[in-house]
Design a protein that fits this description.
By secondary structure, the protein is mostly helical. The protein has helices at 6-28, 33-49, 58-89, 94-108.
Amino acid sequence: MPEHNHRTMSVYHMLSLSSLLCGILGLICIFYPPAGLVLGVSAILTAWLSKNDRRRSASALAGTVLGCLAAALSLLIFMQYVLVIDYITDPGNSALVTDILQKYRDLFGASPVQ
């Protein structure tokens, strides 16, 4: 195992902490899928870079897990956005969509949009 000085150890420690931070922020941003995906992948990459011929630290492991969750959930939510937009814009579903919107307007007391 190569000998590391204090400076290189702190760089790897900072990478593992940045992995954890990116994973946490990625989970916060999952409802904006591009940001959640970028932060999730960044968390995975920085955790991988922080290893460097030694055991992965707890913060790097947590960053990897959170990053994987953020990336997967961001992709899932993006697919749901695409499916909902596709369903709403389909002309065959216009009567159903109009009926649902009218029920929500009645429920919340909003006036119909002209």
